[in-house]
Amino acid sequence: MTKKGRLEEIFSRALHADDYSLYFVSYRDFESIVEVPLDEFVRMSENFSVIPASRITRVRRGNETLYTKSSL
Q1: 10-residue block means of pLDDT along the chain (72 residues)?
Q2: If you write DSSP's letter for every residue of 1-46 in order, what string do you get?
Q3: What is the pLDDT of residue 5?
Q4: Domain-by-domain residue ranges, the chain?
Q5: For the stretch 7-33, what's the b/e string if a residue is b when 16 or more beta carbons lie within 10 angstroms of its beta carbon?
Q6: CB 43 within 8 Å of CB 31
Q7: d(CA 23, CA 56)
Q8: pLDDT score for 46
Q9: How far apart are CA 28 and CA 56, in angstroms?
Q10: CB atoms within 10 A of CB 4
Q11: How far apart are CA 13 and CA 23, in angstroms?
Q12: pTM score, two decimals?
């Protein structure tokens, strides 16, 4: 599965089958890593068009990491 496909699967499950407020997304913003709640990330990224999947470094649900960029 591609990186974007895997992330979309996690996001879809979070938004439609779980409590999305438990999810947080970390992404690269120039030289820093920013972590935001999932719902805020979805609004900001406009379905990965403003913030592409390649800039996402981590997705977590509570304390559990669901996705980590492999090059970190």
Answers
A1: 80 93 96 96 86 94 94 53
A2: --HHHHHHHHHHHHHHHS-GGGEEEEEEETTEEEEEEHHHHHHHHT
A3: 84
A4: 3-68
A5: beebbeebeeeeebeebbbbbeeeeee
A6: no
A7: 13
A8: 85
A9: 6
A10: 13
A11: 11
A12: 0.87
